[in-house]
Every structure is written in structure tokens, then in C-alpha cells.
Amino acid sequence: MIDTHCHLTFPQLADRVDEVLAAADQAGVERLITIGTTPDDAEAARTIAERYEQVYFAAGVHPHYAPEVSFRDLPRIAELVAHPKCVAFGEMGIDYHYPDPPRHIQHDLFNAQLEVIRYSELDKPIVIHCRKAVDDVLGLIDASGIPGSRFVFHCFTEPPEEIRKVLAIGAMVSFTGIVTYKNAPEVRESALLVPDDRIMIETDSPYLTPEPHRKIRPNEPRYVADTAAHLAQLRETSLSDFVKLTTANAKRFYKID
Ligand SMILES: [Zn+2]
After folding, report:
1. Ligand 1 centroid to 33 CA: how many Å?
2. How far is the CA of 240 from the centre of ligand 1 (A)?
3. Is the full-model pTM beyond 0.85?
4. Fold entry, domain 2-254
């Protein structure tokens, strides 16, 4: 399995990465992508990826950090993405779950990152963080002219009518432990609509531990297996076939072997 989205640099995991990776390995997680959320965080992610063969990283600015990051820092993101173990731009996007940061600040930062990507010769994929903002995210992606097939909508939590729009642009979709939660039937409905070649799995650890371990904090990459098992059952396929499929999708999308 590949945990396509985790945060090994966050304080809940950062001081015991050895242990977290050993446990992941035991659970059959052979590759991990640790996602940078600011330029500094992406540098820390790069350090981990340089140290451990099975870890790759991504570099972007998460919308929550929009007020702390200056546009002058964005060239640093482009430099980090050029690193051989950096597999993607991101995470980046728009989040309307909380009133802050203000919408226009999130839009400007996301747009500025899309501009960086448009003028970069690096053809790497882009990890999107999108919460309750599908129309606005798709609008900015469309205006950027970047092909929809380069994007993955990570930690997808929107209902079926929203996932249809995301699938229509050719994007990939990735699911966390939220899909295992009792109170998320609409996320399961969405997960059923994703074609076999467009679905991936992730933990988004240290957050969102899947059932049946939901009470365990922090979440760790090893629990991606629980999300895989849940999705396999939901999609009426065997766990081994589902793991093969999602691993192949992740390797193809992120160009890792
Ligand atoms: Zn994340």
C-alpha cells in the first residue's frame, strides 16, 4: 500500500518518525508521501524524504497558512518541487469550513500557486485541499488552463453532486478515514462513483484515524490499511485487488516505483 498523504513533519509524529515508519512497514505500507503545508514545512518534509528511501514529499501552501506566507516565498516552493523525491505541488486550495482565513486571501494564494505551476517546466501533479469549495476551486483550476488530470482532490468529503464535477475534469480523488465514519454516508456514496483508475487512499495523519481505531490519537500511516479495507468492502472488491489498484494508481499518478 501507499499512504499518499500524511504529515510526518507535524509535532504529533515528527519526533518518532523511525517508529512510525517501522509500524507502517509492518502493516504493509511500502511507500509514503509526506505533504508540505508551508515552505518551511516542505523543507522539513524534504529532510525526511532524503533520510528514508520509502518516503517522498510534496511542497505547497495549505490555505490555513495563507496569512503567514508571503507571495515572495512561493519561488521556494518551485525550487523544492524540483527535488528528485518531490512528487507533487501542494497541498493547496480553498477551505470554507472555518470563517478564516478570509476567502479573498485563500483565493489569491491558491491562484498565485497555480501561476507558479503554470510557468514551471515541472510536469508534476498537484494535491488539492478543498473543503466546501468545489465550485470555486474548479473555477480557478479552469481559469489556470492546467489540465484537470494533473490534480488530485485529497481527503474527499463532499457529497455525490460535488464529486461528479471533480470527476468531470479528469481529476483523481483520494479518501481518508472519514469514509469509514458512521456519520459520513454521503462520502461513501461519493466513493462509489469514482472509477477504478481514479481512486487513491491516504491517512492525512496525524488526523482522522479510521474506524475501528478512531479513538487512537494520533493517526499514523499504518492505519491506511483500515481505510483500504473499508473501501474494498464498500466497492464490493477484494482487499488485495483494491490495494493493487490503488497502489498502481498512486505509482502512475505520482510517477514513483
Ligand atoms: Zn493534509
Report:
1. 10
2. 26
3. yes
4. TIM Barrel (3.20.20)
